[in-house]
Specification:
Low-confidence stretches: none
Number of helices: 5
Helix content: 25-40%
Number of domains: 2
Mean pLDDT: 92
Strand order of the largest sheet: 1-2-3-4-5
Strand content: 35-45%
Distance between the termini: 43 Å
Shape: elongated
Structural class: alpha+beta
Number of strands: 9
């Protein structure tokens, strides 16, 4: 994983290249080699996005992935500006990621591309567990899916037609 310089038009977002790999398509005339890049962008304040780009050259693939990531940004409700409201499970392909809120000072307990997603989302205290396949892209997508499914107590109360006090007990 390597950090990329920030885009001049979007100074608020930080970019992190999670994965760059060579992909091959076999044609009648031989193998056609291209590159696939996976990039995570975030503002470390509750907004994060994931993008994939493919091109003949690595820099072009990264550029495309950054553009795709900016289009896929999601907002995450942070509790006390440091953790998530409740436990959530995200799935992508065979990869499953469980994220749980943690006490202040715990830090980010996660590995690989899940750590990149959580860091750029601005989460400072969280525990995560990765289950199933360890593909970098699927792990990152599963982490995004888990974060997307998180609701604040206010949102849950509104859905159920109750007050926040009734929800929290």
């Amino acid at each position: 994983m390597q950090k990329k310089n920030m885009d001049p038009k979007n100074k608020e977002f930080e970019e992190l290249v999670v994965d760059v790999k060579g992909v091959v398509k076999v044609n009648k005339g031989g193998r056609q080699r291209r590159f696939s890049a996976t990039v995570v962008v975030g503002d470390r304040n509750g907004r994060v996005g994931l993008g994939i780009g493919k091109a003949a050259e690595v820099p072009d693939a990264i550029k495309k992935a950054i553009q795709a990531a900016h289009k896929n940004i999601i907002k995450i409700p942070l509790i006390d500006g440091r953790t998530v409201a409740h436990e959530a499970i995200g799935v992508s392909g065979a990869a499953r990621v469980i994220v749980k809120p943690a006490k202040a000072g715990t830090g980010i307990i996660a590995g690989g591309s899940v750590r990149a997603v959580l860091e750029l989302a601005g989460i400072r205290d969280i525990v995560s567990k990765s289950l199933g396949a360890r593909t970098k892209l699927n792990m990152a997508q599963a982490a995004i899916n888990a974060l997307e499914s998180i609701k604040t107590p206010e949102q849950v109360a509104k859905l159920r037609g109750k007050t926040v006090e009734e929800i929290l007990g």
